[in-house]
Design brief:
Elements (H helix, E strand, L loop, with lengths): L1 E6 L8 H14 L5 E3 L14 H4 L6 H13 L2 E11 L9 E9 L5 E6 L10 H4 L8 E3 L4 E6 L6 H9 L4 E5 L7 H15 L2 E5 L4 E2 L2 E2 L5 E3 L5 E4 L6 E6 L2 H10 L10
Parallel strand pairs: 1-2, 2-3, 7-8, 8-9
Antiparallel strand pairs: 1-14, 3-4, 4-5, 6-7, 9-12, 10-11, 12-13
InterPro entries: C-N_Hydrolase, C-N_Hydrolase_sf, UPF0012_CS
GO molecular function: hydrolase activity
Keywords: Hydrolase
Length: 265
């Protein structure tokens, strides 16, 4: 099973429609992959708080349409990163709510799962005040594995990843807009989530700088033993690709059955 992470930049001078077209072209170029992953909020920028409301869209909006077509043409499973989802009537007093929502498309272009980010970043500012929180872990069954979905700040909360593992996840996918000043945490936590859950981790970050926040980049694919299979060396625009062996998850779990010895559940 081949997985590719598309570490793209979010330039405020590039119109969102242009970036959608560029991302769709990159997806089509990965037609030899089985699974393709994009970063968090790549249409607006994870730290571009002032753009959230204007850049919000429904689940059948322009990003979903462009990604559906790209997945269908490339014949890949596509984790299209996340968008600012506008949910009419779900906010306080019947107002619209905004969610940081990840989209997963089948090779036929069908939107098969969405995941609303549970842990919002900002400590009473930014995303934490502008977005509503999701409340449900989400897994996605693929022919060769089961994905568990997480977004950026979620990476700091191991209980979510354990819940995904308990729900059958064998490949944990994290889309992110992770800042460069905490890049060491990004790499450490991606490996930790792989080791403690004995699962593949596919962590796709953003390139460059947006909203004056330099990005960590360093998108990475980690195997169930914690070994790095492929990693972007910096925060430039990169495609990170590795071959995954779905059977290796079961081998690691059988050879070193740490999950069996859990006491607190």
């Amino acid at each position: 099973m081949r997985a590719s992470l598309l570490q793209i930049g979010v330039d405020p001078d590039e119109p969102a429609e242009s970036r959608r077209a560029r991302a769709a072209a990159l997806v089509r170029e990965q037609s030899g992959s089985d699974l393709v992953v994009l970063p968090e909020l790549w249409t607006v920028g994870a730290f571009s708080f002032d753009a959230f409301a204007a850049g919000a869209e429904p689940l059948d909006g322009p990003t979903a349409r462009a990604m559906s077509e790209a997945a269908r043409e490339a014949r890949v499973w596509l984790h299209a990163g996340s968008v600012v989802e506008r949910a009419p009537g779900e906010g306080e007093g019947g107002a619209d709510a905004l969610y940081n929502t990840a989209l997963v498309f089948s090779p036929g272009g069908e939107l098969v799962r969405t995941y609303r980010k549970i842990h919002r970043f900002g400590f009473d500012r930014g995303e934490a005040t502008l977005m509503s929180a999701g409340d449900e872990p989400v897994t996605v069954p693929l022919p060769d594995t089961t994905l568990g979905l997480a977004t950026c700040y979620d990476l700091r909360f191991p209980e979510l990843f354990r819940a995904l593992t308990d729900a059958g996840a064998r490949t944990l996918v994290v889309c992110a807009g992770w800042p460069a000043r905490r890049a060491a945490h990004w790499s450490l936590l991606a490996r930790a989530r792989a080791v403690e859950n004995q699962a593949y981790v596919l962590a796709c970050g953003t390139a460059g700088t947006h909203a004056d926040v330099p990005q960590a980049g360093r998108s990475v694919i980690v195997d169930p033993w914690g070994e790095t299979l492929a990693e972007a060396e910096d925060a430039g625009e990169r495609v990170v690709t590795a071959e995954l062996d779905p059977a290796y998850v079961e081998k690691v779990r059988a050879d070193f059955p740490v999950l069996r010895d859990r006491v607190l559940r």
